[in-house]
Design goal:
The chain has helices at residues 6-18, 34-47, 106-120, 141-151, 162-172, 214-224, and strands at 25-26, 29-30, 74-77, 82-84, 93-98, 128-133, 156-159, 176-181, 187-191, 195-198, 204-208. By secondary structure, it is an alpha+beta fold. The chain is globular. 33% of the residues lie in helices and 21% in strands. It folds into two domains: 6-47, no CATH class; 74-224, Glutaredoxin (3-Layer(aba) Sandwich), CATH 3.40.30.10.
């Protein structure tokens, strides 16, 4: 845990609350008497953020943020036809790298993306949501055709060869790595988690972290399209 880790303050505060009040030193502060230690502990306890308190909202200047990415892909859609960024000329896109069997970040990011689209309604009718798989072995066009509509009827899954997918990841500066397999053979991948928002010229406008709620994602999309 580093000094800048946002968990550090809560961790240290929790450790302090569990420490005996009779201690004469804690969190780097020396005390001459147990009374001084108790007073310092009480003050720190009162100032520590409570678990029920929501973190302060980030200013608009902090999210989203611009990125320099040359977006490009040439892959196979769940329909079996080839698709590249040129096929969506004039249409903004939301692109996420993941895989159909993912129960980690994909199970958060994709449903939030879908919910944001529903919130936007007709205002995002031209927006094309896309998932580019990091698991081509299991995410065949047929598998994607079954899985994608369950998340959102407009979500398009793209797959391809290892080389084609590697080229797409390189273009979007995304890393993906197979970590291991479950007992049933289901793979577990580590992969990038940002949602990329592109304009009608396939220019990446910004990236959206999936920790944002669907309301905020929808709000930010509207600022760009």
């Amino acid at each position: 845990m580093t000094r800048g880790d946002p968990l550090s303050a809560g961790f240290l505060a929790g450790a302090l609350l569990l420490a005996p009040l009779g201690a004469t030193a804690h969190d780097g502060v020396e005390h001459k008497t147990p009374e001084e230690a108790a007073a310092h502990a009480a003050k720190t306890r009162a100032e520590a953020p409570q678990a029920s308190e929501a973190p302060p909202p980030l200013p608009d200047a902090a999210l989203p943020f611009p990125v320099e990415i040359e977006a490009a892909f040439d892959l196979v859609a769940q329909t079996g036809t080839r698709r590249s960024e040129a096929d969506f000329a004039g249409r903004p896109m939301l692109i996420f790298f993941g895989y159909a069997s993912c129960e980690a970040i994909c199970s958060v990011a994709l449903p939030r993306l879908a919910a944001a689209l529903d919130l936007l309604g007709d205002e995002a009718e031209a927006l094309q949501p896309i998932m580019i798989t990091v698991d081509p072995v299991n995410d065949t066009p047929e598998a994607l055709a079954e899985a994608m509509p369950k998340i959102h009827p407009r979500l398009l899954g793209l797959t391809g060869s290892e080389a084609e997918l590697a080229a797409a990841r390189a273009a979007f500066q995304v890393e993906a790595k197979k970590l291991h397999e479950m007992i049933d053979g289901t793979p577990i991948y580590s992969h990038g988690s940002f949602i990329y928002l592109l304009d009608g010229d396939a220019k990446v406008l910004t990236v959206l972290p999936p920790i944002l709620g669907e309301d905020r994602i929808a709000e930010l999309i509207l600022k760009y399209i």
